[in-house]
C-alpha cells in the first residue's frame, strides 16, 4: 500500500474525486492518509469529514518561517508514512524542505495547458487570451510556479460564448478524468 497525502487550499473537488477513486478500488494499492490544508475555512475540510479522511489544518502564519512550517508538515507526513504528496488546489509555492524530502514524488494539477497561463486565475487568463483551446496539466512539482516537468495534458475548446463558469466546469471535468489516470500510472 502506498500512502499519499493530498494538499488543498480551497473547495477540494479534485481531492474528493481522488478519494472516491481510492475508496471504490479504481486506484488500487493507494491509501489517502489525510487532507492537508493551509486554510481553516476551506470547504475541502467538510468534504474530508464526509469521506472520513483525517484533516490537518496548518496555517503558515502560525510559524515564524516557511521552513518551520514545512518542517512541521514533514513531521506529520513522516508519522503517517506518506510516500507521495498530491497537490490539488494548494495555493502556495512549495519550499525547499518539502521539495528535498519529496523530490520526484510530488504531483500537481493546473487548469491550463502549461506552460501557458501559470499561477492564479488560469481559466480567466485563458478566456481573456483569445485562444481557442485550453485544458489541464498534471506535472511534477519543482521550486517554480507551475514549472515542473509535464506528465500529461488534456485539452478542451474555449467557445466564443463561454462564461468563466462554463469554462471552469469543462476544465474541472477534464481534471477529474486526468488526475486519477495519471496517479494510477505514476504512483506504483
Topology, please?
Layout (H helix, E strand, L loop, with lengths): L1 E7 L4 H11 L6 E8 L6 H7 L4 E3 L8 H14 L4 E4 L8 H6 L4 E5 L11 H8 L3 E8 L9 E8 L6 H23 L2
Parallel strand pairs: 1-2, 1-4, 2-3, 4-5
Antiparallel strand pairs: 5-6, 6-7
Helix pairs in contact: 1-6
Name the features.
188 residues; alpha/beta; Rossmann fold; seven-stranded mixed beta sheet; 6 helices; 7 strands; 37% helix; globular
Describe the structure.
The structure is a single chain. The model has no long low-confidence stretch (mean pLDDT 97). Strands 3-2-1-4-5-6-7 form a seven-stranded mixed beta sheet. The longest helix is centred in the C-terminal third of the chain and has 23 residues, at 164-186. It has helices at residues 13-23, 44-50, 66-79, 96-101, 122-129, 164-186, and strands spanning 2-8, 30-37, 55-57, 84-87, 106-110, 133-140, 150-157. It has 188 residues and is an alpha/beta fold. It contains six helices and seven strands, in the order βαβαβαβαβαββα. α1 (13-23) packs parallel to α6 (164-186). The protein has a domain at 1-102: 3-Layer(aba) Sandwich (Rossmann fold), CATH 3.40.50.170.
Order of helices and strands: EHEHEHEHEHEEH
CATH topology of the domain at 1-102: Rossmann fold
Shape: globular
User: Which stretches are poorly predicted, pLDDT < 50 over at least 5 residues?
Assistant: none
Strand content: 15-25%
What's the total number of strands?
7
Q: How many helices in DSSP terms? A: 6
Radius of gyration in whole Å, from Cα?
16 Å
Cα distance, first to last residue?
9 Å
Mean pLDDT: 97
Gross CATH architecture of the domain at 1-102 = 3-Layer(aba) Sandwich
Largest beta sheet: what is the strand line-up?
Answer: 3-2-1-4-5-6-7
Q: What's the name of the CATH homologous superfamily of the domain at 1-102?
A: Formyl transferase, N-terminal domain
Largest β sheet strand count, sense and barrel closure: 7 strands, mixed
Q: Assign the CATH class of the domain at 1-102.
A: Alpha Beta
The helix fraction, in percent, is 25-40%
Structural class: alpha/beta
Amino acid at each position: 500500500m502506498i500512502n499519499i497525502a493530498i494538499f488543498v487550499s480551497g473547495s477540494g473537488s479534485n481531492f474528493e474525486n481522488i478519494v472516491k477513486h481510492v475508496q471504490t478500488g479504481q486506484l488500487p494499492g493507494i491509501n489517502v492518509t489525510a487532507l492537508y490544508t493551509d486554510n481553516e475555512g476551506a470547504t475541502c475540510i467538510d468534504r474530508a469529514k464526509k469521506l472520513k479522511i483525517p484533516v490537518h489544518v496548518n496555517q503558515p502564519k502560525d510559524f515564524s518561517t516557511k521552513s518551520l512550517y514545512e518542517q512541521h508538515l514533514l513531521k506529520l507526513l513522516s508519522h503517517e508514512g506518506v510516500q507521495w504528496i498530491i497537490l490539488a488546489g494548494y495555493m502556495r509555492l512549495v519550499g525547499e524542505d518539502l521539495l528535498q524530502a519529496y523530490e520526484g514524488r510530488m504531483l500537481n494539477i493546473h487548469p491550463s495547458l502549461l506552460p501557458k497561463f501559470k499561477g492564479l486565475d488560469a481559466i480567466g487568463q485563458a478566456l481573456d487570451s483569445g485562444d481557442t483551446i485550453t485544458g489541464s496539466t498534471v506535472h511534477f512539482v519543482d521550486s517554480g510556479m507551475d514549472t515542473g516537468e509535464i506528465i500529461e495534458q488534456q485539452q478542451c475548446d474555449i467557445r466564443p460564448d463561454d462564461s468563466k463558469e462554463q469554462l471552469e466546469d469543462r476544465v474541472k471535468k477534464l481534471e477529474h478524468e486526468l488526475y486519477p489516470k495519471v496517479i494510477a500510472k505514476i504512483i506504483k
